């Protein structure tokens, strides 16, 4: 096991790495599909034009090998993806693998594009676990819906699940996976549902109205993994204050309970009020807080080891570049920049390419979200859901005391 050696090296590193390549924009289903990795380029450009990132911070992603993909995905599924991307898979067979659907259409060379996304997350893992960097951000990753033998919900290969298994096998690490995407992180959860060395925490919109319909509070794991899957499904129209309270309480108590060796956060930006596919009402206030607490806890429990990936986010102009840039600003202790306006050069360049009016500031105006009639009721319900989700953890912590 190599983890002990890397643990000692890791303590000497305080820098952060940004995993990125324009080649990742090849993960594109169609011109009209809501999943658009142009958001990666928009975020990268915003960071450069705000003088928040240097070329030396960037590491190019590698392509994951078939052996690495097989850590989670069945051999037959990987072969099906390869054939589909070469127009060699019959539609009825493709459908058995979740390919060629409305959510996950087939596109040319889809295996190569998806394997590059996985390789980017593994690149982030290796640079952190070998002590070269304390933190790593790979916004191309976070495709949390993929299953062993099936693509799902815009996700072909599940880079986060592969990275977790890779962390376990190569580095012997106990992994805390924290998912704040508006959609439940089902593929990751069920990959490790019976595994006591992986703790999955997902805070998401209730599946009553939203794909994938899972992530109920009573999904707690099975066998030796019972108690290590934690779900906090919040009600539709949840706003910043309630979302932040649920998130901060949950991640602090789960981290204290699990005591991870490394934290992997999935940072979907689709809980924002502007997002067209969800029903939550967060603003940039939430996206400032989410990485802040994760960063603090990584230093408290993991000697800084923090790997962050992207995820959902379908308002690619007004929301995703700002939300994802805030992760990097937090990682590199540059959050003081958010008191300044967004760079004029970035706004002028991209405004001509979209019909929506780009925001001029890092954070949203206080009146962005209209008054929610059921706000008090929603907040109360979320608090009760949180109590149910953490009940077994609180009992165990009380017993230890």
Provide a descriptive summary of the structure in words:
The chain is of the alpha/beta class and 401 residues long. The protein has a single domain, classed as 3-Layer(aba) Sandwich (Arginase, Chain A), CATH 3.40.800. The chain contains 13 helices and eight strands. The chain has helices at residues 3-10, 38-49, 66-69, 75-84, 91-96, 110-129, 159-171, 186-191, 240-258, 284-301, 320-331, 344-351, 375-400; strands at residues 16-19, 58-59, 135-138, 175-179, 198-205, 229-234, 262-266, 306-309. The protein has an eight-stranded parallel sheet, with helices on both faces. Helix 9 packs parallel to helix 10 and helix 9 packs parallel to helix 13 (375-400). The radius of gyration is 20 Å and the shape is globular.
